[in-house]
Fold each of these.
Amino acid sequence: MQSEVMFAGFGGQGILLSAKILAYAAMEEGMEVAWVPSYGPEMRGGTAYCTVVVSDKPIGSPVIRNPLHLVAMNRPSLEKFAPVVKPNGVILINSSLISIVSGRNDVDELIVPVNDIATKLGNVRSANIVALSAFVARSKIVDFDILRESVKKEFSKKAKLIPLNMEAVKAGEEAGKPKG
Amino acid sequence: MGKVLMKGNEAIGEAAIRAGCLNYFAYPITPQSEVAEYLSRRMPEVGGVFLQGESEVAVSYMIFGAAAAGARVFTTSSSPGISLMSEGVSYITAAQCPAVFVNIMRGGPGLGGILPSQADYLQATKGIGHGGCRLLVMAPAGVQEAVEMVMMAFPLAEKYRNPVIILGDGLIGQMMEPVEFPDSLGSEPSNKDDWATTGMDTRKSTKRNLVRSLFLDPKQLNENNLVLKAKYERMKEEEIRYEKYNTDSDYKVLIVSYGTMSRVCKTAIDQLKEEGLEVGLIRPQTLFPFPEIAVRKTAEKDSCKAVISIEMSMGQMVEDVQMSIQGKLPVSWYGKCGGDIPTPEEVIDAVKGLNV
Amino acid sequence: MGKTFKKPEALSDQIMHYCPGCTHGVIHRLVAEVIDELGIRGRTVGVAPVGCAVLAYNYFTFDFQEAAHGRAPAMATGIKRVRPDLMVFTYQGDGDLASIGMGEIIHAANRGEKFTTIFVNNAVYGMTGGQMAPTTMPDQRTTTSPFGRNVEDVGMPIKVAELLAALQTPGYIVRQTVLKPKYINRAKKALKKAFTYQMEGRCFSFVELVSTCPTNWGLTPVEAVKWAEEKMLPYYQLGEFKTPDQEE
């Protein structure tokens, strides 16, 4: 079983980092993973995207045109990638910055005001962790406890950022829980 | 040490250190600059040498000087940078010094682009610099294999006293995958007393060592070339490596593909299997020496009706595939060269287009 | 009575291939004497250039590497960085160092690489047959400046020692000549100082030596010395341009 997650947004939104934490968590869970960044000229122009492939078998093609899931942190990302997401995947929409929806009725659309939540926690820069946590809570792509530990590990060298990011994990988990 | 999640470029740098190579000279170029960035921090930690040279040309001679002084040494670059280094590579080969080069390929020709490519196949395998020099060329298909090949490359370079080049596409450098590092190797070439300019005091014999590539006497120059040729022939005997996939099946088509491209082909093969079309894959892990006999034998299966070389280039390896098949089956090519890696779907279309 | 004059141990018995009146032989001997006197033959590695001195290794009796055209300073950098205990020198001509290898020499000097460069400036490409070099004098005729070097067209000759001395990194930069015995002693002192600075791990050291090329200048050896004294020395002034002792 293989699943793929596309993280997409502006440069500076921590796209590559949240993708890396997910890849790390999946590796800790014993899965095969590949973290595949876009490093073309667009990286310098502002949009960043990164795919994480998670599988229980060795990963064949690391090049994914149709990911199962999408975490869209800004509107251009949603517009570009929502149409290529596979049916039955999760599309997380950062509604703080995106005023539209995916227009897909065959996916699980998760609308989270990621930036607003992060700002309320005290630092908008934790928005990527809020989004990652909400996405994992909804998609269950990795065990949530492992994700939490992976976030902690990522910030282990900047210990003073751990409490904020733990708050972000908690708020994301809350926002991502299936409703009802 | 268990698995760590690492970017290919950083893993390549770490692998060199684990291989006992504590000397690195380089010049920045996308998409492999992370190797230099990583080693600029890491080499001081392990007491190694890190130097950013003023150009790839200069770097190739820093490598030459260091290798000729008996040190284990390597550099990394990407396509246009490798062109600049190819002058030094020719000298290093002629002077029979061991050194490791890594080319994290980007698209070309010219400045081309910075996205993944396999467009330096011919450059690497057919004599990278002037004068008929040859390198042992290895092509990893993932970060783990890149690490293993880097660690194999140093002993091989020393065994042959010849440069070895790792040919990876941009994605191999940029991608993160879990890596487990093999046991560390000792440092320093063991046979260096015979040839390296380590200073006469360091050796027992009173003979001085001379590292050179100039042979004005035609007899001597021919002799040097015969020595090189013998090494290349020995590589063909001893160093060919390849992997096969789905070749237990009665495959109708045989794909030949390497590097990241071969992984895309594997996914395509899995999907085609579900559709009822069996396709086999042979993935050369050494591009020079090319697994010529293995490719031919694999294609000789009765069920196999066609061979296709799938590459991120406009058809370079296909020439070696044609040579291997010796006209026994139709050989075609599919590929792309702009940095857009072909998808499994595109590979499927290419295979179906063969109408076997 | 013992022997009062003998060939330095660092110099081989090989008969040199240099033309009559060429100063390479003198310079080779001076280098060999200095290496003997410092007792470093067993830990010295020379780097030969491309040019007339490409076969320099035939005349010395210690480890040698042979570089590509202009790349000797990069090779010496490689050696010295991985084997700081070795004594390393490059031996380069003006086509090699001042033209194709200008990038390598400037950066090696600027990094303060702890090796020595011996720069033999005879105002012409020797081995390739007397073509114009970056150091060719104004109006000097060569095979590629048959009407004399036109400075309007190709600029003035490059004063490499002055150029390197302008770098902010500490170094030992000197120009001497071997045209006559009175100069030769000073040249040897400069070479010894250069190697000594290297031994002490002090700095990059650079000795430019104004030399002759009677063959390609179309002069007799005696005329060549006279021409170099009259034409070259006023432009390529002798002396120390920089020492590591002087602080900015």
Note: Chain B touches chain C at residues 23, 25, 49, 51, 53-55, 57-71, 73, 87-88, 91, 95, 197-202, 208-214 (CB under 8 Å).
Amino acid sequence: MDIDWDLALTSLWPLIEGGLKGTIPLSLASMALGLILALLVALMRLSNNRIASGIGRAYVSVIRGTPLLVQLFVIFYGLPSIGLTIPPWPSAIIAFSLNVGGYAAEIIRAAILSVPRGQWEAGHTIGMSRTLALRRIILPQAARVSVPPLSNTFISLVKDSSLASLILVTELFRQAQEIAAFSQQFMLLYIEAAAVYWVFCLVLSAGQSRIEKRLDRYVAH
Amino acid sequence: MSPTNPEPVLKVEGLRKSFGDNEVLRSIDLSVAQGGVVALVGPSGSGKTTVLRSLNGLEIPDAGRITFDGGPVVNFGSGASKRELAALRDRSAMVFQHYNLFPHKTVLENVIEGPVQVQRRPKAEAIQEAEELLGRVGLAEKKDQYPHELSGGQQQRVGIVRALALRPTLLLFDEPTSALDPELVGEVLSVIKELADEGWTMVLVTHELAFAREVATEVVFMDGGVVVEHGPPETVLRDPREERTRRFVHRLLHPF
């Protein structure tokens, strides 16, 4: 196979642009919303209120038990038939946030449970309420434990965001598909897209190590 | 301050607690005088730690009443409210067996967390007081270090300072030296002794009978969830009336 180097070069920027304007903002927004949702769900699952913990458990079960692509299609192609039409970008953000929420909830719940009981008690003995102890004492320690698994979730999200191409969101993979269809150079464009995803993920992994180092400063080595 | 002060700063009446089928407290009565040092001693499983933790609202008894002079009065049984537990914690502060310092905060941050975040005292004032207290236990130069950088004895002294910084009426110690290497026990006991000499009111659970004999104004011997006998240390620890106490003291003094 001859490699069309001209096309490889001219298509590189559109792909990167698709990443910077599509993939990355889509992933960041979904991760941020997903984390808020995940914290909420984790707290529901940990609460003594049976209804709250039941709802939390059901949510996690549905999200983890159904394909992300199906969730995305239900929101974008399904909801209009009951009169709720959501444009591509918001649809993608909703689907990805809900998905991250389900997976990250379990990570955060486990991280909270990994903080020793004595830390709650120490918080209480200095007069803290549950909420204050959670915020000042427990979550900062849970954060350290949950960074590596949450980074995995984020990296998966960056890659899974390519599914948004199927609901017409212009992002990295959709750019590759369009250029490939136009030029008929499928192998070249898809390998190139894979390479750009890979570089993005390498950068993210480097960022993860930095965050871990920062959070590790109070731990014995 | 005299231990025979008629008005007790703390009164405990009829405390009961079960964990499932296991009845760990069967009606405990206790009173602590202003400036008094009460040592709770007894075999493990006797309920002494449960009594101590109840005083700080870390354990919720099934029945009974805890009365602090000047409030609060907390009646257990009908379910103590959050506000009542908070009121108990306002008056007392616990020093834990395993220190339970906040590992993500420096020594100074550990000490000012309660005064600043809970008691809403000005930060500058809290820092000044914390530095003074740390200086008194010989840890002034450790204030910016993290707990894992300290020895067990140093961590426990920080634990004591963290409790003192709350300005409690009552200091509670839960086996404060039993997690320490033997050579570090002395430095912690001597801090506790100084506090006792200064007139702090305290309740401590301890296995250090020699220490209890030296600092306690009253020794309470518990076994099987009841107070078997109580009184001045020279009586309870040297010349106990009850056979159970005698056997316990003998076992601790002559382990072989």
Note: Chain A has one domain: 5-213.
Amino acid sequence: MASQLLMAKSPEEAISAKTAQAAFLAGGTEVNRLGSSVDAETLISLKKCSGLDGIESDAGYVTIGSMCTFQQLIESDKVPAYIREAAHFMASRTKRNMATIGGNIASMRRDSYMIPALIAAGAVLELAGSGGSCRIGIEEYLDKAAEYAGCLILSVTVPEKIKLMSKRYSNTAQSHAVLTMSAAVCGDGIVMAAALKNSGIYRLMDFEKALKADPEMSDDDIISWFRNWDAIRVEADMFGGEDYKRYLMGVTACDFRAGLASGSGKEVES
Amino acid sequence: MINCTINGKKRSIDIDPVKSLREMLLKNGNFAVRDSDDAEGFCGSDTVLLDGTPVFANLVLAGEAEGCEIVTPDSLGDSMHLTVVQQALIDAGVVQSAYNAPAAALLMTWLFDNNPDPSREDVKDVLSGIFIRDAGYEQYYLAAKLIKEKLATGEYKTEIAPEFRPQLKSVGKVMPKVDAPQLVSGERAFVEDYVDDDTCYMVVLRSPYAHAYVNKIDTSKAEALPGVIKVITAYNCPDVTYMSAGQGEPEPSPHDRRLLNKKVRHVGDRVAAIVAETLEEAIKARDLIEVEYEPLDAVFTVEEAMAEGAPLVHNGRVQYNAGAPDDLDEYNAKLSGDEREGKVVYQFPLHGDVLHNVAAANHGGIGDVDKAFEEADAVVEATYQTSQIQHTPLETHICFSKLENGRLIVYASTQVPYHVRRIVSWVTGLPQNKIHVIKTRVGGGYGSKQDILVEDLTAYATFATGRPVLYHNTREEEFIANSTRHPMRVHVKMGGKKDGSITGIYMKVDANTGPYGNHALTVPMNSCSKTLPLFKCDNMKYDLTIYYTNTPPAGAYQGYGTPKGTYGLMMAMCELADKLGVDYKEMVLKNHVEEGYMLEILKGLGEGREGNVVPVGSCGLREAVEKGCEMIEWGKREESDDPDWKIGKGFAMIMQGSGLPGLDHANAIAKLEMDGSIIVLSGAADIGTGLDTIIAKVASDILCVPVERITVITGDTDSGAFDTGSYASSGTFFSGNAAVVASTKLKEMILNEAALQLGEDKDDMELDWPGEVISKKTGKKLSYYEIIHTATSGTGRGHLIAPGSFTTAASSVPYGAHFAQVAVNIKTGEVKVQKFYAVQDAGTPINPEAALCQMYGASLKSIGHTLYEDMILDEDGRCVNANMTDYGVPMISEQPDDFKAVLIDVDDPDGPFGAKSISEIACNGAAPAIGNAIHDACGVWMRSWPMTPEKILRELGKIK
């Protein structure tokens, strides 16, 4: 348990207080929850931090302040439908009132509600750290997690118009997801991402390539592809057996391919 | 110092800013901001408004509340000044065990403050962060409607519930539950609300091993810590062998445990109890205890337990207090006799055999099943597996005890106050007059509080230290150290003729009781005794074996073994109908029992003794089946627009009991008070289901006094009279009937006294509303005030006090049928319960609105059991999903879109004013109804619950 709380009033103040023994505290649903993996001496609360809760739309992109709660995302007309759908995956309204988009990204949970959709949408993060600020793609942020661990997420930028589908599988609406997947049309191909519980968060680039190479792959072939995909480690656990999880990824990929081809993406609603 | 505004008042609270907002609010006296999940952000008991937005107070730090405005549930209205929202929740019947009722009231208030015309989706959304286990969510929609109407027009327009028995004024009428104002307003109600400031805290060191000897415990470092009062271990606790089941004495459960044992038998078993002046000190001391374990091989399933040469969970001496077998010495010689094993003491033979890990067994039947199967046109045979399930009451197990003038005072959240007193008496050696058990309101029991799981140790800690002691389970401890639903393997063989008649039924039930035998016989017994009597069949046989294992303990759970037996039997019947080519509904109608049918099968199904063979009494089963089939349009095939989703329908007939005839016993005392009002002292234990209200209503109609003039005091072992407790659906039938007896006796006393005072014959006297006696002969009247005033004057004949005792051999059986329409995604295995209809014969529903809520609550709970609830153990016997999120319980998102509860009007001759039990039976139908519907949808028989998408995909051949 932390021994100190700092209420940062600005991003600069938050960043200057960030040390290896300190952690940023956003909505609190992750850091303050039972069994949290965050162990810090000092918590830097961002609740009263200025400039992190705006939602702006400009030139086909929406920039969302990192302290925007899931509920604010749902209630904003500016936020694309696919982001609102991902926010709705968090079934508890009370929790949505607290959880923030920045917190959800930074916690990098393997049952993340939001990250697969953000990967598929090609989200860009604006980060600020002791060395200054930068804009990077969410995939890079995830790939270089250690490098960016001291950085504060200021905002998330996503395209307004994109065909994107998401699907979340869990025992109950409030349970942790065994699998959350998203896919979006990108150029003449599909970008696909998955958060697989107890395995990892993946941009499914290998599959994207396979599909590009053989756009006529049958559904059975797609399911087989995921069954045989050895680049990721999938183990049986309380969320299901290995074959179940791989099958689920495969069958979901089939649905996405068909859905995006038929125009089922969320772009229309945004 | 945190400066903020709480409920409109500016406050400065001295608290460490890294403590939670909830802790700060508790310090401020807002105790109705409760905790059900140890800051998991799941149950919503800690909901408050922070700057106008609902949040979980456990997940906000106190320091973050600086300068904020906070609103807590206790700010709405007190029990004498309820708000429209609070009153509507009460009137809709949703304020039951009510641990989360204040939080729900706050959320609904917030909803209407921000949106005076909320839609059903808005209500669903606002309640999505709150867990309601008792009443389900359907009637919250009704409450919202009532609020809307009341705010708009000043009155309700919608009928709350059907009413019954027009000749009566209180029974069968919609009327607020008597304890609801206290509960919804967040007044002191639960054990945690009565804890004294100087109370010590107790925590328990629990076993990391599923099976091990505790060879040595070094507590010296722990005891050396300042603030530590005592460490209790197997080596300094009383050598008393007992068990935790709150059942009639002598219990049909083996006595096989002490307060702490020298052998641990499951992960989470008690190793040491630490009492310290603060919780932090107790936890710190716990971490300093050094234990030397000698791990042993363990067994986790009935298959492992029954295997030749399996490790023995109990390998000590066996004793019998009655009926010992002749070869007991020889038998005991085969056991290890290791002193660390302790002993197993049977009060009478239960066919246990610890040498084969058998805690209890029973076998019996009627007719000739082998011949019946030979004569059948078709026979089905299948095994149905059920999982281990946690009750998940919102209020985790808790006990507060203290000494007062040489007596042990025990505040307990229990279903069985008198059994708590008896077991505390055994453990401490104190006579029962030196122990006062006060049952507070109970924040959810569902059977788990029929076991004495924390009161024994807490009370002993006070007895041993002289200090007030509080013990409160964490949510994880609820999973690993409580009772749970027995996992069972139900094997059914059923034969039938082409005309749909069933020729024979065989059930083989293997149940897993875990490490201890509390309820070992009775719970699994219900899988046969509350299912086979549904069938008009001359050939039935059962073999029931209950095994000890090293899983977390099993025990009583709402429905006992009935949901599992019903699952097996009704699934098998559907399979048989399918095989015979007979419509399942027609087969049900052809084979179910009817009034007057003699239930010979019951002879062997008593709880540890011969059962009563009785004819079927009042029975609304056929009407329930017909009504439900009409509602769900049985036989009409539904098609989805999406070819991946297949729709199917299923149903199951169900039954339960209304207490245990010949075993249960209830008492009540009715008193006419000095102003003519009534007090009823009852031994009953209202666990939120409205039993106090039932008692008040029956007294009201017998004594012609409005319910407002009747106070019911229950659950207090000093002021009441013995009652076996609230379990086995006994409350309404037994405690209600005891109130009938006491009230009827008081009525006679009032009539006698009035006759004496008027100088007339008693036969000319009759009671009249509201609380007076009128002479049919002279027309003279005496009010109850006048009668009691004269009776208690210096020359009167004294206070009018009437005791009532109720026992019976009669059995009032509730019947019903539950119906499901499901959609199954044949690509992903997902299941949606689109429709669920619970149609039940509960006799006269004394509290009709509460009855409906209990049907909704139990049905939703059992939908959860059927589809996802499952305690998962790893290879070492450790529960890997011992929290609410990973375990998964149905919340408002999981509720069927079309959910209906329907009461069939049946007037039972033996129940109080014709009433039977209502709630427990509603746990029995979901699994077979949904299982059969899944088959109807996609052709697979789901023979294992929970029926997860993964299992469905496997059955469909989609995955390995």
Note: Chain B touches chain A through 55 residues (CB under 8 Å).
Amino acid sequence: MPQLGESVTEGTILKWMKEPGEAVRLDDPLCEIETEKVTAELPSPFEGTMGKILVPQGETVDVGTPLCEVVEAAVAPGHPASGSGEGKWLGGPMAIPPDEPPAADPAPAPVAVRASRAVSPAPSRTRPDERERFFSPAVMRLAREHSVDLSQVTGSGIGGRVTRRDVERHIATGPAPMPAGAAGPGVAPTAPGAPYETVVLSPTRRTIAEHLVRSNVEAPQAWTMVECDVTRLVALREQDKERFREQEGVDLTLLPYFTAAVCEALRAFPMMNARWEGEELRRYRAANVAIAVATEHGLVTPVVHDAGDLSVAGLAKRIADLVQRAHARKLRLEDIQGGTFTVNNTGSFGSVASKPIVNTPQVAIVTMERVVKRPVVVEGDAIAVRSMVNVCLSFDHRALDGYEAGGFLADLKRRLEAIG
Amino acid sequence: MASMTVIEAVRSTLDEALGRDDRVFILGEDVEAGGVFRATEGLAAKHTGRVIDSPLAESSIIGISIGAAHYGMRPVAEIQFADFIHAGFDQLCSEASRWCYRTRGDAYLPMVVRTPWGGGVHGGQHHSQSIEAYYAHMPGIKVVAPAFPADYRSLLRAAIEDPNPVLFLEHKRTYRLIRQEVEGAPAETVIGRARVTRNGPDLTIIAYGLMLHESLAAAETLSSEGIESTVVDLLTLNPIDRETILESARATGKVLIVHEDTLTGGLGGEIAAMIAEHAFEYLDAPIRRVAGPDIPPMPFHHAMEDFFMPNREKIAAAARELAAY
């Protein structure tokens, strides 16, 4: 079971794509795997014939568990059974010699597919091309300078080696925020006549549960709410939406306006745009806004990276793309990593007030509630019908106080009311 | 603008030097008749008495040049094939190299030794060797090995004007193979500077002479596969341009050094050591060398010569491994 994403410890076989006895080419998909974070196909690291399936469909196993056997294509006698695929590492001056002497028996032996990134058990280097724990000087230096935990970096180099570019990419996108993925409901068989059904928790459901418990236990969370008069914003959106749809190809909702206003407010109150990294609280320069998306597979929070650099139109398109891919379960790892602040559009359920849980290690989350028309007292003590929306904020009281949080919310309110 | 081969670049620069400075003269085997590669063709007739045939004795060619330089002349010696230069090794390394040092800077030896080097021309055991590492090891001798005609012009001029001994290496395979548009007078240049001839983030290829051209061809192939390499033309082998090498090594973190000289004790080892010493923390892969195998001479047989010579395919193959590392 490969490690598909940081902090993932187990995965479920959704579907086997090769039958025992079937020919397997290098990088052919062997099976589809679901983890807390992503669903992915497992490409075959070997060329040969599919052997025994060790983990049946639907079963969940720990990272590092052998999934199946592949009988490698015949290798010339006297050569170690390794690296036979095209474009694969064949040794040469840069090869690290195998720890084990080459097998004397040239008969093809089944090789257990073990694409793990070896997290818990110490890696035993049994093949010359397993280099996931070999770090070059450049990688070590970068990791030290940027406090990167190298076990959290996925290697793209030969034998899974973490390259300098992998670390640079990791530094650029940051570690994963709240995990997301598939939470497909399932029911375990219960005794006939039992007055209940047992819900089988999917990896995603369990991760969401663990994450939220951790967040609630770790972070003392305070809550506050403001009400905003968005009559003008609603009118502006009404006026723009037809043309926007024609020009940009996506629907214009209030969410991109809201997100843009959030980014501006974050710039004014940078303490809100922060993450805990261990004991350290880091204020981020870029606003990487995570958008909570409720899907039938579970809650996902894809990230709009550098949201502060985008226009309303740019945000609309980016959010539409992320939401669409979240529903289709096509999010990539980088789509869900590195969030610095979360926006939750609870209004889409009709809610007018909600208490979100902070998406730790971030320090704050806002909701945009439903826009409702209400009689409001306006200037001159008159009563008018206005489009009102509540904006709720939960924040980690360890990181900041009401001074910043209140200031941020007031600023956000001012900006929302000024649009249009 | 004129299109010029390497040999034309050498000849025109010699001609200009003879015309510009009365102290310059050429000494070598068969140079009056133009030399075996025709580098001095027509120069004896044009500059009477200053293109001088020597006996077949390399130690005397270099020894006479040292003596003439002592007396204020600016000799440009030609050694017919670099393979023959070792007869003058003692003259170069024990005398010429240390004259400035020995006189505590009071005296200089402004002399140039030009010689065709390298293989790929089916020259066999006595007409194909790479000799640069012996001489680049010697402090006090500058060693220059350009790749492009314009650099031949500017560096040969700089060598002739240099107050100290310069070994000027001309890759014989490139003499009529490499052509370049060359403008007017040679550009002002300094011995000791390398040049980045191609830029790419994935790896650095360091080469000189014919191998620079092979490296550029390899880089072109690699580019079509999505691997973008930086190619550094060393130009001067002693003193080596440490700054340019280190800067590029730090930028890409992956370095491939190419020379047709045999691997062991070749310049690649020195460059690799320099990078390991000064850019260790930037390295993302082992430093690779593509070099001639440790076989005494370049073989004559065509297939064996091909086996011996590094080429664009071998360079590209090593670069691919390095990029994927």
Note: The two ends of chain B are 44 Å apart (CA to CA).
